[in-house]
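Checklist before submission:
- one chain only
- standard amino acids only
- sequence pasted in full

Submission:
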Amino acid sequence: MKEHRTPTPIVCTVDVVLLSLKESALQVLLLRREQAPFAGAWALPGGFVHADEDADTQESAARVLKEKVGIASPYLEQLATFSGLARDPRGWSIAVTYCALVSHEELQAALAQDVDRAAQLQLCDVSALPQLPFDHARIVEAAMARVRSKSLYSSLPVFLCGPEFTLPQLQQTYEVVLGEAVNKVSFRRKMDELDMLEAVPGAMRSGGAHRPAQLYRLRPEFRRSLSLLERGL
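Returned file contents:
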C-alpha cells in the first residue's frame, strides 16, 4: 500500500516590477529586504499572498505596492509565474509576478509622504542592476521584454508620462522604452489610430527655442486600460 505523506507547504508570493522613467532612462524600484533570507539585499517589492484578505493575486500585488511603496499604480499587469524548489531557500515556492508603470513625478510624490519608507527604496537603471536575490533578475528581464514588445502596438508607455504631456515628450518616452528612434510622421499617425489622447483645453508648454506645444492627457476610458493597434509602430 502506498504511504500517504502530508504535502509540504508551498511558499506563495507576489513580486512587482515597478518601472519609472527618469532622465531618459528606464528604472526599476528596488526594496531593501528586512528579513531572511537575503536580509539587507536589494530586491523587487513583494510579499506573501494573504488568503484571508486578498481576493486574488492582482489584489495581493496592489496591496504590496500600497504597503511597501505607498503608491497605487495606474497600470498593473500580470507578467508570469516563476516556481520551483531552487528559487527560494525556504523551500518549494511559486511567485506570481506583476509589472507596474508609473510616472517619476507620481512616484516621487508618493515616496515623499513617508521618509522612513523611502529610505528603504531606490530606483536603479534597468541596465545596471545590482545582484538581486531569488530569481528577481530573470523577472526584471521578463518584464522588460514584455513592456518593449507591448509598446510596439499599444498605449503602454503613456503610463510613464505625467498626467499631462506634449506629443514630443510622449514620442521620446516610446523611444526610450523601445531603445530606438521612431519616425515622427509614423508616430503621430499611430497615436491618432490609438485614439487615446485628448487635448487639455488652453494648455500649452513652452519648448524653449521652439514654439509652445499643446498639452495632452489620457482619455478617461484609457486611464486604467490599454488602447491597442492592429499593426505596430
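Reviewer check: Strands lie at 11-22, 25-32, 42-43, 46-48, 75-84, 93-101, 121-125, 197-207, 210-218.
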